[in-house]
Structure formats: structure tokens, C-alpha cells
Design a protein that fits this description.
Bound molecules: pyridoxal-5'-phosphate
Largest sheet: 7 strands, mixed
Strand content: 5-15%
Low-confidence stretches: none
Order of helices and strands: HHEHEHEHEHEEEEEHHHEEEHEHEH
Number of strands: 14
Number of domains: 2
CATH architecture of the largest domain: 3-Layer(aba) Sandwich
Structural class: alpha/beta
Mean pLDDT: 96
Shape: globular
Oligomer: single chain
Distance between the termini: 15 Å
Number of helices: 12
Radius of gyration: 21 Å
Helix content: 25-40%
């Protein structure tokens, strides 16, 4: 019998140090008037340097960032955009925001990210954009996705929400397509409460995105600052959020190291189980392991992820379901026979917050092994 943990072990949780407090304090105290964008500019520059891209545009969220990219690319009614069937709904919602149609590709059985074969089958004359998602911090097969995109001359926009620092063949994700977006929502790899950033090296696109993010306000220096040239959106990040985000980003290597360490602990304790697999990185991908995720393999004792989650909750362990197959949501009502359906039924995100220690991961792993054995 394993002794139940006293407190609920949560799935996420940031790492906040004195650096974050110092920057936020400074932004709250001094980040107004002439200093209104001090941290925003620093954040932009840090991202440009790290990713070696020409433009970085902080936004109020990753969703807003992706909406801006599609709008700036001129995606509209009658166009199709291919997204993976397992992702947060934001990836598909932004396609609807611009009036286009989301088309769902299956996910790969090994990496659980967009399956290139399924993607190629979905391409039509109307396909304008492909949005690969680096799910839970694992890079997609960017060789194949870029090959297909180039073959059919379609833009790639990367949804890299939680995947800052993940690499494919030693190249950072978020630098493959024409543009990419990341998220700093409170459960992500680095947090700003809410927030996102768009990266691109395309000058024309960056100008359009900057203008659309600020209500279509003119970018011309000689014009009235309140002159509006087109209808835009309000998708700005605040200086205070940027201060928190910058402090987190300065610690990116440490934060990734900890996520990889957490995955390593789970892998060590669970690798001998024949009934489960974890979302281990597949060469040449280097994952940041934002969320360690477990898949229950086919066997006559197979247990549903939802049943496993219930039993873990009784042991004070919180988990998150893997996203449902998003094409089956009532808005799209698509009927598919994808692997994504099996994944969403038999996979869960395990606690992966930065505050976890090895002893807690051992406890969680022991509980998982116990439940699977006794099922
Ligand atoms: C894959 C993916 N895309 C997009 C988003 C949206 O990010 P945000 O909440 O910053 O809009 C998320 C957030 O969970 C996500 O996981």
C-alpha cells in the first residue's frame, strides 16, 4: 500500500524567483510615460537575438498572435488551413476568425504531432496555410512538413505555444515557417500570466502584423498618431507582463533543463512498464518536455485515461486529459477514423510543474504502476 500524499500535486506551476519580482516591481513603479515600453523592447530584442529572427512582436496571447499572422497573410473566406487534429482549439479557431475553413490532419503515431502523410492527403487548390503544432514541446517533423509546403507553395505558420527552445535538427522551432507564435499563459514553459509573441523575418508581414495589433493605427512617423488606416485589433502586451516574461526568458536554459530532468525521472521509473509509453523525443527532434505525457498501450488490461486520472486523483495526483480530437467538436462535426481519437482516449498529461522534485515523481510513478498492475 502506498501512503497517500497529503497535498494535491498539480499538473503545472511556474518557477518565480527574485529576478521576476525585481523586474515586475520596476515596471509597476517606473514603467509609465516615457518608460512605458522599456520591458517590451527588451523582450523583443531578447527573442530576436535568441531565435536569430528579424522581428519579434509581443502580443496579448498566442491565439491573438496567430489571428494576426493569418489576417496579415490575407487568409479569408474560401481558403483552407490545415491544422493537426490534436491541439488546443485556438489553432483552429483563428482559422475561423478570418473566415477560412480549418482542415484536420491526423497526428503521427510516434510524435503525436501533425502527420506529414495525412497532411499531404488534405491539400487542395484552396489550401493556403499549414499550421504545425509542436505539441507539449515536441517538435513536428519539420523536414517533411517544409518539403510538402514548398512542393505545393503553401505558407507554414508554426504554433509553437509551449515549445520555446525545442529544436529539429538543431534548428529552433518557430524559425521554419514564414511566421510563428508562442504563448506565455500561466501554465506554459515561461509565464507572463497571459501573453504571446510572434516571430518572423519577413519585413512586409511584420509591418502588417504590428499595425493590425494596434487597431490599424498608422506606422508613419509624419501622421497623426491616432490616424487609422484599416480596421485592426487590440492585441498588445503590457509592459508589466513583458517584465515578468523577460525575467522568465532570461532563465530559459534553466527552465528547460528542469523540464527535461522531470521527464528523465518519469522515464527512469516507468520505462520498464510494458503497458505504457511516454512522449519521448524522436531523433532529430529535441523536446523541451513542457508536459510529460503518458499513453496506455493496447492490451487486454488496457485502462482508459479518464479512469486512470480518477484513480490518481484519489491519491492526490492531478492530471490533464490530452486534447480531444478537435475535429469532433460540435462546430466542425467531422467524423474521422484518426489515431488522434485513440490518443485522446488513452493519454494524459502528468504533473510537470517546475516545482516538482524527484521524490514526488517517484511517488506519482509508483501510483501509476500500481493502478496499471491491479487493473
Ligand atoms: C498548442 C497551443 N496553441 C495555442 C495556444 C493558445 O495560447 P494562448 O492561451 O496564449 O492564446 C495554446 C495554449 O494552451 C496551446 O497549447
Amino acid at each position: 500500500m502506498i501512503k497517500k500524499n497529503k497535498n494535491l500535486i498539480l499538473t503545472a506551476g511556474p518557477s518565480i524567483t527574485n529576478l521576476e519580482k525585481k523586474y515586475v516591481n520596476d515596471a509597476v513603479s517606473n514603467g509609465w510615460n516615457n518608460n512605458w515600453n522599456k520591458y517590451l523592447l527588451k523582450l523583443e530584442n531578447s527573442f530576436k537575438k535568441f531565435f536569430k529572427v528579424k522581428y519579434a512582436i509581443p502580443t496579448s496571447s498566442c491565439t491573438g498572435g496567430m489571428h494576426l499572422i493569418l489576417s496579415a497573410l490575407g487568409i479569408k473566406k474560401g481558403d483552407e488551413v490545415i491544422v493537426p487534429d490534436i491541439t488546443w482549439v485556438a489553432t483552429a479557431s483563428v482559422v475561423k476568425y478570418v473566415g477560412a475553413k480549418p482542415i484536420f490532419a491526423d497526428v503521427d503515431k510516434k510524435t503525436w504531432t501533425m502527420c506529414p502523410k495525412s497532411l499531404e492527403k488534405k491539400i487542395t487548390k484552396r489550401t493556403k496555410v499549414i499550421i504545425p503544432v509542436h505539441l507539449y514541446g515536441h517538435p513536428c517533423d519539420m523536414d517533411e512538413i517544409m518539403r510538402i509546403a514548398n512542393k505545393y507553395k503553401i505558407h507554414v505558420v508554426e504554433d509553437a505555444a509551449p515549445a520555446i527552445g525545442a529544436k529539429f535538427k538543431n534548428k529552433l522551432v518557430g524559425t521554419f515557417g514564414i511566421a510563428s507564435a508562442f504563448s506565455f499563459q500561466g501554465a506554459k514553459l515561461i509565464v507572463a500570466g497571459e501573453g504571446g509573441i510572434v516571430l518572423t523575418s519577413n519585413k512586409t508581414l511584420s509591418k502588417k502584423i504590428k499595425q493590425l495589433a494596434a487597431h490599424g493605427r498608422t506606422l508613419k512617423k509624419n501622421k497623426n498618431t491616432f490616424w487609422i488606416e484599416k480596421v485592426g485589433f487590440k492585441y498588445a502586451m503590457s509592459n508589466i507582463q513583458a517584465a515578468l516574461c523577460l525575467a522568465q526568458f532570461k532563465r530559459i536554459k534553466e527552465l528547460i533543463r528542469k523540464k527535461r530532468e522531470i521527464f528523465g525521472w518519469y522515464n527512469n521509473y516507468l520505462k520498464n512498464s510494458k503497458s505504457i509509453v511516454l512522449n519521448e523525443e524522436f531523433y532529430p527532434a529535441k523536446s523541451v518536455y513542457w508536459m510529460t505525457t503518458l499513453f496506455i498501450k493496447k492490451s487486454n488490461k488496457r485502462i482508459l485515461a479518464s479512469a486512470l486520472a480518477k484513480k490518481l486523483k484519489k491519491m492526490s495526483i492531478d492530471t490533464r486529459p490530452v486534447f480531444p480530437s478537435i475535429s469532433t467538436y460540435p462546430m466542425w462535426k467531422s467524423k474521422n477514423i484518426y489515431f488522434s481519437k485513440e490518443l485522446s482516449k488513452y493519454a494524459i498529461n502528468l504533473p510537470s510543474g517546475h516545482n516538482l522534485n524527484k521524490k514526488t515523481v517517484k511517488y506519482i510513478s509508483d501510483c501509476i504502476m500500481n493502478i496499471i498492475k491491479s487493473n
